[in-house]
Amino acid sequence: MSSPAESQHNHDIKVLCITGAARSGSTILANILGQYPGFFTVGETHQLWTAGLVDQRLCGCGRKLTECRVWSAVFEEGFGSLGKVDFARVQLARDHCSRTRGLLLSHVPVRKGKWEHDRAEYLRAVEQLYAAIVACTGCKVIVDTSKLPMYGYLLNASTLVQPYIVHLVRDPRATAYSWLRRKPVRTAKGTSHMPSRGVLRSALEWSVQNATTEVLKAHAFPRAMTLLYEDFVAEPHESVKAIVRFTGEPVPDSPVPPSGVFTLGVTHTVVGNPNRFETGAVSIREDAEWKSGLNPRDKAVINAVCWPWLIRYRYARNKAHG
What we know:
It is built from 14 helices and 9 strands. By secondary structure, it is of the alpha/beta class. A hairpin with a 2-residue loop joins strand 5 and strand 6. Helix 4 packs across helix 7 and helix 9 crosses helix 10. The radius of gyration is 19 Å and the shape is globular. The chain starts with a helix and ends in a 10-residue tail after the last helix.
């Protein structure tokens, strides 16, 4: 296996960043992409340093990350061992430079120096991680579902990583309904639950994440495409092929048949929606429970907050969407 330093000199590392608001279907999309030869899906590496390792979330294979053969090899390759990683320091640098407000701080003279220092430190850890993943798996494209638009912006500063941004958008009423439901999460310590949030906060964060992504697509992301979740579930076969083509990799026969029924193999994702553990036959179809489950008052709140984006993404044209 080549070292991360050798990988940096030999080739760029392609990272397909699925970006946008949470609860938009990124996990199932990434799991499908991870079945393609040369593609390796890693889950939300942005959360690896805390939820993945400190909180002991399980790998997609069902084992602790420290016991998973793939991730054990990755950390040995990239860092020598887990014991040599200063998680608190990486987390602090990450939090300072990768939140949305960091985009503003990066242009404030008084804060710019600190922001750039933190970005460099966090980017160094991310580059080591990605280079080790390539060295250990032999993959050509890493699929990352960290979703934060600032994470993609961070990768733009790398001389090693070549980010490809897939802006995944889902109806904000659907994502808000998903946030209202408490989903169980498997960890090495037992079962906990994903956090829930109210519709107002959900709508605001949905708007901020998508607006930030749109700004960065226009001014900072040289390689970006937009995919509506609803288009993906309607035509998974064509959507997945379009993404593979977008990365410049050869497009084989899609593993998603036109029927939308897909057979998932085991993945090695670090953090994400609980459905990352699903294997076997999975039907790719829209989760439309929100249309009857979300009450009219909550729909009105979301419509009021998100109306410009409902128009932009065509959701306002379809009365069936509430």
